[in-house]
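Fold this sequence, please.
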Amino acid sequence: MFFSFSIKDFLDILLVAFLLYYAYRLMKESRSLNIFFGVLVFTVFWIFVSQFLEMRLLGTLLNRIVSVGAIALLILFQDEIRKFFYGFGTHKRVRDAIRFFSGEEKQSHTREDIIPIVMACLSLSKQRVGALIVMQRSLPLNDFIRSGELIDAKISQRLIENIFFKNSPLHDGGMIISHKRITAAGCILPVAHDLNMPKELGLRHRAAMGISQETDALAIVVSEETGNITVAFRGNLQLRITAEDLERILTEDSF
């Protein structure tokens, strides 16, 4: 039998391979790789039985299992599925396209906005005062803002230091900066449960990782124990960075 292979077939295979690779990465990060391989083997067996061997009885049985199993997989992998679509939605080119068609302006921060944050983090680092600052980007953080105390103040080094002073009632939560203003403090943030995180990192670092995984925000952590400055962005941590590194990160075009 003559077998035809067109550009459409090539694109079909390429897209399936890309989706499988992306799903593999998500499962590997969430330590669900064995389940992913089990589902993959079952899917290949189902396609082979129903499409190639055309076993009607076994194929019908597997079809029923797949129809019910699809709902079970949605429940089982709801976090991974959310991260999957979140990864597409927060991709730089996708966000640029959304801004273009919606007329939304990209939020940009000037040196006047960044320097007070950098200087405050440097001062807190020297004093071994813990801090967690979240910088909103394109995705709104309204739910997290409502969990804290609204401030709506100009970005100020002294204000940041006073909020995270050890006797301040707001020093334990996270500060959220959006639209070039300190919007709220004492905010409750999602905590990451990644087992691969170093054990010496505390709750602030896990909250920074959590907010960077669920949103496209950038989080800055000052360690109370060591004074080290850490940045969390897109689920990745940059540990023990300098004030110069922090200024460079905040002034990058990606931010």
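Strands lie at 131-135, 149-154, 174-178, 181-187, 218-222, 229-233, 236-241. The first strand starts at residue 131 and ends at 135.
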